Fold this sequence. Notes:
The protein is globular, with a radius of gyration of 18 Å. Helix 3 packs across helix 4 (116-128). The protein has a single domain, classed as 3-Layer(aba) Sandwich (Rossmann fold), CATH 3.40.50.300. By secondary structure, the protein is α/β, with parallel strands linked by helices. It contains nine helices and eight strands.
Amino acid sequence: MKIAICGKGGCGKSTITTLLAKTLAGKNKEVLIIDSDESNYGLHVQLGMESPKGFTGYFGGKEKVMTDMLLSQFSHQFFHQAWTVADIPAGYYTEKNKIKLMVSGKINQANEGCSCAMGTVIGQFIANLQLNKDQVALMDMEAGVEHFGRSIDNGVDMILMVVDPSHESLKLTKKIAGLAASIDKPIYYILNKTTDGNKKVMCESIEKSEKIIAEIGLDQEIMEAGLTGKELFLSETIATDLRRLSSRYFQS
């Protein structure tokens, strides 16, 4: 199963990606995490891993990819056959405890242009990726909805939106639900940073609240790890919730 994890900036996409990946790996799933957020520099830290080379470099780098796209009037195909997890070249992923991490690429300097090349490569990769029943791919998407416009989500099996306790995030649920429906992808929600005081408002603000499949409470250890740049680990409460969730929804 290929799952796109999305939401507004700061809602906890990388946190949920990390915790869910560790839960699935603990259930003997082989997990591929695809960091497709060109502005995110912390996912590998949360996983306790080194960051691999940007996958766009395998096709010659951003400028070469953009040239190929322009010459073909944006119809260039970088993949001519199906790929498996085993086909990912050495150096373009790092691995730890049954979790592999690959990165589309990053914006590294001012004035280097848009990230269209990286989005095109990773979107085609996701569309051509074939998984077996013991494998799950988690895509940590960029903040907002641009990835829908780039057609990156067309190749996934499920949209998982992380919702935090903010008006912006709750309002965005309606937009992302509509975009998911337009490409015929099921959408579910994980509420993040919940408290006894905000949970009711969050649940009541989401249309089709039955699509809320997990709630992650405001966790002091997770907050401290995020502040100090340390690896995230599952607390017993979160581990129990996510194990139950993965058994029901995230089987290949």
